[in-house]
Amino acid sequence: MGKRKGKDGNAKGGNQNKKQKYTNGKRFWIGQCKTRKVPKSIPSHLILPLVISRVELTDDQMHAGKILSKYLQEDKKISDTNVNAKQNNEGGTNSAVEDHPAPTVVEIKETEKSNESSVDASSKQGSLGNVAEEATEIQSEEKRDPFVQIKRNFQGKPTVASGMKEKELPDGDCGDGIKNPFSKDEVPNKYWAQRKRLFSKYDDGIQLDKESWYSVTPEAIATHIARRISAMTKDDGKKKVILDAFCGVGGNGIAFALHEDVSLVVCVDTDRNKLEMAANNASKYGVDPSKLLFVEGDAIEVLKMYSNGSNTSTTIEANCDKSIESCHGYTIAGYQKLPPKIDCVFLSPPWGGVEYLTSGKDGFTLAKCIKINAGADEESDGKTLLALAAAAAKNKGVIYFLPRNTNGFDVALAAWGIGYKNVEMEQNYLNGKLKTITVYLHEGNR
């Protein structure tokens, strides 16, 4: 439910080319990749497991206010496990798969026929898959890329939930008879029709600006991620502090703050108006004001202030002119209110504008597709952002929220370059449709 802006500062989304409308993931990298056997010539320390997991979520947007409580109550029914540090390179991982038992890792052989007629991305000329293949070439150990070993912890195709096929009604009517009151330019009908999917309490006074209508994570996915992030950091019994580096109108931050294992969510955004909307939205969900801190500032600057989970900065004066205010009972401030420690970093950065689904044959890559303004005449990319987050929350955890066409080889190689030893890419399905990808990196991966 966090904000996702475009390259020019505008949020992602908008009208997409109908020719690029995919729902089942078959034409994305994550739907094409195949598991390969590790050649015997590859030493174990150069094998990088890339676990592909899947979560199938459903919601009922016509029952406002019940979605969130439903998922919170089902925490004990779902096995939200992560990649264990003690697993060796031949092992796998379990991940939350709603309404399905957590399966073991299934190694799909090269000779196995694919029901989906998928194409091995690694065999394409010029694709990033070739980067992984080059790991088998003779080169010096210190410069040698890893062999990316793809594993899957699920079997079969995603299941479309019964009764979840939707019929599009005119004027944004989602079945409750309420037509879109906004102009089509400000809020397209398709976004209005999904308002309770974005925030189940929309009718209680949720606030969204024009950008947020198409850049908010659906509530069911945000709640699931909150369960995963709390589970993967549950190592010492202490409640965690989470840094939401691109919070927008607060969707992900609200989901994190509502979890009992989280003590504080630091929500950072450059737009104070969005922070005020986020405070309003948090109040509609009854979030304890002590569990949310809204910070007006730059995500890159904030990440650089932390090292190994501790705030080491002594140069916050530049941001201290930001006034401190109370909005709906929640504090909005500048860097002077940043906590001394953080445990996890959640990244939902700009995806590069409405063209992110048409990023080329290599798919969505961190360095090419994510561009973030990092001060005067400075620009950072998604690969650098991951490195900064890993350094800020060293050995604690990073979760990267990415589009469904993300290239897994690219993410895996970026993670390897900063010391992670395995990666989990989770497919987020909602009502039978692949919506997003969530990458989980934590102390068990380093």
Task: Write a brief caption for the model.
With 446 residues, this protein is an alpha/beta fold.
Strand line-up across the major sheet:
2-1-14-15-13-10-3-4-5-9-8
N→C terminal distance: 28 Å
Radius of gyration: 21 Å
What's the pLDDT, averaged over the residues?
76
Output the helix-strand order.
HEHHEHHHEHEHEHEEEEEHEEHEHEE
Major sheet attributes: 11 strands, mixed
Number of strands: 15
Structural class: alpha/beta
The dominant shape is globular
- Uncertain stretches of 5 or more adjacent residues: 6-24, 62-142
User: How much helix is in the residues?
Assistant: 10-25%
The number of helical segments is 12
Which range does the strand content fall in? 15-25%
Topology (SSEs and partners):
Elements: H1 29-32, E1 47-57, H2 67-73, H3 129-133, E2 147-152, H4 189-193, H5 195-198, H6 219-232, E3 240-244, H7 251-257, E4 262-269, H8 272-284, E5 292-296, H9 299-304, E6 306-307, E7 310-311, E8 325-327, E9 330-333, E10 344-347, H10 366-369, E11 371-373, E12 379-381, H11 382-392, E13 398-403, H12 408-417, E14 423-430, E15 433-441
Parallel strand pairs: 1-2, 1-14, 3-4, 3-10, 4-5, 5-9, 10-13
Antiparallel strand pairs: 6-7, 8-9, 11-12, 13-15, 14-15
Helix pairs in contact: 2-6, 6-7
